[in-house]
Amino acid sequence: MDENRVQILQDLGPAAAQIQHPSFVGFFHPYCNAGGGGERVLWTAIRDVQKEFPNVICAVYTGDTDASKQQIIEKVKNSFNIDLEPTRLVFIYLTKRYLVEDSLYPRFTLILQSLGSLVIGYEAISKLVPDLFFDTMGYAFTYPLVHYFTNVKIATYTHYPTISSDMVNRVYERKVAHNNEARLASSFIWSTGKLIYYRFFAKVYGFCGSFASVAMVNSTWTKGHIDELWHTKAEIVYPPCDTERLNVLPLQGRKPIIVSVAQFRPEKDHSLQLKSLAKMMEKYPQTKSMGVELVLIGSSRNEGDANRIDRLRKEAVELGIEDYVRFEVNASYNLLVSSLGMAKVGLHTMWNEHFGIGVVEYMAAGLIPVAHQSGGPKLDIVTEYDGKPTGFLADSVDTFADALYTALSLSEEEYEQIASNARASASDKFSEEAFSSDLLCALRPCLT
Predict the structure, then answer these.
(1) What CATH number was assigned to the domain covering residues 3-240+432-447?
(2) What does each C-alpha distance from 97 to 38, 64, 117, 124, 148 come to in angstroms?
(3) What is the CATH superfamily name and number for domain 243-429?
(4) What is this structure's pTM?
(5) Where in the chain is the domain with CATH 3.40.50.2000?
(6) Quick check: 93 and 113 in contact, CB under 8 A?
């Protein structure tokens, strides 16, 4: 056993030191303290591995150097209601996480972030070589590095492919998106250059992903892209949702509140939510007297997120809807559950969301989802249940406005019927038990 492992076992205390033949699983998750859906997957996976394999030490490679082990564990409990075993959990702190911050690279973001991940990947394995390297964020460029330097098995849970055919097609069709600025999309030369760059990057990304021994993905949409790029057969393991706790929230007494649960990242498109609310009130002015409120709940990870929130507040003022919008930044899990228990509608506007765990939480909590007609919400989540509707899909300001109005205008009987369908669908497919069973089935060959 190398010196790093011996030191870790000593630091963990007598209980860890007495483990016979300890095995180390390294969870590569540089933003483990972010508090989003990806982090719920991470902490649920760690909890399940700790329960199933008493000889495993879970090591989390994280760049959250400003948070202690105790602080992170407490946040996990407060945010997700997940209990961890601290005597078999260690944090390996990475000092160069800034190299994967998108704000550092205004141009060639994909390739430069990926190259940056090589640096922190090397830093991770230089501090601890695990028996299984488990990437839970999607930094595929680290896989060849880990393979050639350590020859350990590599598992991955991919929430979203770094590049996809949809992204390439948007550049090819010269459509404006968060990854394709208007002034570049309008230029034939820039678009052609970017198309070449994206196609080259997709080839390299596919090569790197092929080093994964176990590939898990969170949705049908993600599986299609990963299988195509990595030439693999990924296992769909739907992310965990605390359906048991959310299912007990009563359907009666709900208010005309629209809840949006999403990190304040650009691709979540909170601006579309504000515009849709404003359009709904313009097209259906009677909604202003209904007591409608849009509550934006999400975590702010860094200065970029904080600036984005400030811009959204200003946009609400410009649209004249500031009195109908409330921001809940870095809210506790209890506040989240309380908000879900009062609202009727859950709003989700990200285009080609890889999965959409927030949408599942809406459904489990008894909200009617109004989600983007693409990605996971379209293919896996907001689908019929026993031939009955579970929510609404939209893809523009106008269609979102109409869907919101329709959901808010339902009679109590109609609302409870659709909400019940949605809740039943979420409980069947997306419970923590279903996640645990599928995850452990995929990992067991690597851990036994």
Answers:
(1) 3.40.50.2000
(2) 17, 8, 8, 11, 22
(3) Glycogen Phosphorylase B; (3.40.50.2000)
(4) 0.78
(5) 3-240+432-447, 243-429
(6) no
Please list the pLDDT of the chain residue by residue as tens digits (448 residues): 578 888 888 888 888 778 888 999 999 999 999 888 889 999 999 999 999 999 999 999 999 999 999 999 999 998 888 999 999 999 999 999 999 998 888 888 889 999 999 999 999 999 999 999 999 999 999 999 999 999 999 999 999 899 887 777 666 455 545 454 555 555 667 778 888 888 999 999 999 999 999 999 999 999 999 999 999 999 999 988 878 888 999 999 999 999 999 989 898 999 999 999 999 999 999 999 999 999 999 988 788 889 999 999 999 999 999 999 999 999 888 888 899 999 999 999 998 888 888 899 899 999 999 999 998 999 999 999 989 999 999 999 999 999 999 999 999 999 999 999 999 999 888 888 889 999 999 999 998 7
Which residue in 370, 377, 271 sits closest to 37, CA to CA?
377
**Cβ(367)–Cβ(239) below 8 Å:** no
Q: How many CB atoms lie within 10 A of CB 399?
A: 17
